[in-house]
Amino acid sequence: MSAALDPRPDEVATAALDPGALAELREELGDHVFRSLLRTFATSADARLRSLRELAVDGSPADVVNLVHLMKGLFAQYGALAAADQAQRVLAAGGEGGSGAVWDLIESGAAAVAEARAVLAATQQVSAG
Q1: Residues whose CB is less than 8 angstroms from the CB of residue 119 and which lie 6 or more positions away in sequence, other chains included
Q2: Looking at residue 3, what is its pLDDT?
Q3: Pair 27, 1: CB distance under 8 Å
């Protein structure tokens, strides 16, 4: 396991993705499957965030709620706990885009995607080296 994935207390408090959850996934699945799943997460979350941006402007609250419900599970599964918590706030607000909760979710979700891509790059460098 890479030291880059070993959680330190300050990382857990500020990370968009829980380093402990990532380390556990990587250990259980191995590097190849871990990278594949993380790539799938980044691609899927990014696509759903684009859809959510559109729905926040032109969609109904019901459409927002349906999408956010899926996103909450996706974020929780990959240790994007801040994004999952923010998704819960959107659900509690009934999907109202004007509340600001949707835009906060887009921001925290984008941070999780960026971090997933950074972890992917780091793990690819480690395995190539």
Answers
A1: 4, 5, 17, 22, 38
A2: 42
A3: yes
pTM of the entire predicted model: 0.82
Provide the Cα torsion 115, 84, 47, 107; round to 10°: -60
Tokens of 99: 């509340």
**pLDDT one-digit tens code per residue, 41-99:** 999 999 999 999 999 888 899 999 999 999 999 999 889 999 999 999 999 988 875 66
Contact 49, 113 (CB under 8 A): yes
- Three-state secondary-structure class, residue 58: helix
The size of the chain, in residues, is 129
Please give the domain boundaries of the chain with CATH numbers for all domains. 3-128 (1.20.120)
